[in-house]
């Protein structure tokens, strides 16, 4: 590879905070041959199909890189459940897998280098209470804290009693909780009575 080509690709990764999509590289006249050469030499890392991290920059990935890479892989995905609890500070330790929500009709691949727990939602529920932030140039979508607690109660059999108890304990202390919204969403999802058992109305 010519040095000017290498420098051009390096600058593109640097400008994009380390992450780059294949389609962006191709649009900027970087050939698949050059992409493969950099990948095979270990200078870029394939994080998922069509998405790369610029190892050659010598930078550390962001602390939330799993969220970033999940949302880069599927830009409609939303961080949910225990992973969203970790983001909101209801869990002190990051779960051993990333919990992802997608539409029931979304069959896009989510093969990543770390474990993923994928949950499918109806169109009615999917886009409710989504917050967005940007990390390393990538938009990360995450459910807000009140909706997330309801979802964790709904998936209690999957996450286990100990984790749910920790989440509920921290939620009760959470200064920005909105109990009205918690119960409203719970009623919409037809688990209002169950949620009120876990988080009693004061």
Task: Tell me how many strands there are.
Answer: 8
Helix content: 40-55%
Strand order of the largest sheet: 1-3-2
Number of helices: 11
Span from first to last CA? 67 Å
Instruction: Note the overall shape.
Output: elongated
Strand % is: 15-25%
Order of helices and strands: HEHHEEHEHEEHEEHHHHH
Strand-pairing-aware structural class: alpha+beta
Gyration radius over CA? 20 Å
Specify the biggest β-sheet: 3 strands, antiparallel
**On the 0-100 scale, what is the average pLDDT?**
94
Low-confidence stretches: none
Could you outline the blueprint of secondary structure elements for this entry?
Layout: H1 3-15, E1 19-21, H2 22-27, H3 32-40, E2 45-48, E3 51-53, H4 65-73, E4 78-79, H5 81-88, E5 98-103, E6 116-121, H6 123-126, E7 130-135, E8 138-143, H7 145-154, H8 156-159, H9 161-173, H10 179-188, H11 192-198
Parallel strand pairs: 5-6
Antiparallel strand pairs: 1-3, 2-3, 4-5, 7-8
Provide a quick synopsis of the model.
Helices cover 46% and strands 18% of the residues. The chain has helices at residues 3-15, 22-27, 32-40, 65-73, 81-88, 123-126, 145-154, 156-159, 161-173, 179-188, 192-198; strands at residues 19-21, 45-48, 51-53, 78-79, 98-103, 116-121, 130-135, 138-143. Strand 2 (45-48) and strand 3 form a beta hairpin.
Structure characterization notes:
- By secondary structure, the protein is of the alpha+beta class.
- The chain is built from 11 helices and 8 strands.
- The protein has helices at residues 3-15, 22-27, 32-40, 65-73, 81-88, 123-126, 145-154, 156-159, 161-173, 179-188, 192-198; strands at 19-21, 45-48, 51-53, 78-79, 98-103, 116-121, 130-135, 138-143.
- Strands 1-3-2 form a 3-stranded antiparallel beta sheet, sandwiched between helices. Strands 4-5-6 form a 3-stranded mixed beta sheet.
- A hairpin with a 2-residue loop joins strand 2 and strand 3.
- Helix 7 packs antiparallel against helix 9 (161-173) and helix 7 (145-154) packs across helix 10 (179-188).
- The protein is elongated, with a radius of gyration of 20 Å.
- It starts with a helix and ends with a helix.
- The model has no long low-confidence stretch (mean pLDDT 94).
């Amino acid at each position: 590879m010519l040095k000017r080509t290498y420098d051009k690709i390096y600058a593109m990764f640097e400008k994009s905070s380390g992450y780059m999509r294949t389609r962006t590289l191709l649009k900027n006249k970087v050939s698949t041959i050059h992409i493969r050469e950099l990948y095979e030499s270990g200078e870029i890392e394939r994080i998922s199909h069509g998405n790369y991290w610029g190892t050659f920059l010598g930078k550390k990935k962001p602390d939330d890189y799993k969220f970033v890479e999940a949302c880069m892989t599927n830009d409609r995905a939303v961080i949910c459940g225990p992973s969203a609890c970790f983001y909101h500070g209801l869990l002190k330790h990051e779960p051993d897998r990333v919990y992802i929500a997608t539409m029931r009709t979304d069959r896009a691949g989510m093969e990543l280098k770390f474990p993923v727990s994928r949950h499918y939602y109806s169109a009615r529920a999917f886009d409710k209470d989504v917050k967005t932030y940007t990390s390393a140039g990538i938009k990360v979508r995450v459910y807000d804290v009140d909706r997330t607690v309801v979802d964790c109660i709904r998936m209690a059999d999957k996450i286990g009693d100990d984790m749910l108890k920790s989440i509920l304990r921290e939620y009760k202390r959470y200064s920005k909780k909105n109990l009205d919204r918690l119960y409203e969403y719970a009623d919409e999802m037809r688990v209002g009575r169950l949620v009120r058992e876990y988080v009693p109305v004061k």
